[in-house]
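User: Sequence in, structure out. Go.
Assistant: Echoing your sequence, followed by the structure tokens.
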Amino acid sequence: MTDTAPALLTADIQRIQQILPHRYPFLLVDKVVDIDGTSSATGIKNVTMNEPHFQGHFPDVPIMPGIMIVEAMGQTAGVMIGCSVEMETTDLLIYFMGIDNCKFRRKVVPGDVLKLHVTTVRGRPGGKVWKIAGRAEVDGEVAAEAEFTAMIDWGKG
């Protein structure tokens, strides 16, 4: 008898937009893969020079702002939770409550592919408060890491 692991979920941009209310220029994740229920997931962000923050951060040396990387981790977690509890047709909103142990290790620049690994530390489907550990990598090198607490408003308001 062989054990077959359940297939991991994937969310393309259409599914992400069904779950998250974010839109350009603040939608910061292009795809979410390896969604393992509410346990973990990996977001993919293709960093391009077309993004508006590069006009001023910094014009001659474009670097993705660190807080945008943390926001991308938060959006990845939102998609993970939304997919896992089938929230594509509801008014899900997620708010940061706290960001802890945040460290930036490497610059993220246009042309990089940012992989956003998120893991649930505490939270349950239907619960309001979640704690997530996040790690952002480029080419296997850690760019940023943080733990964040978020509150889910299951009905926009």
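User: And one key feature?
Assistant: The chain has a mean pLDDT of 92.
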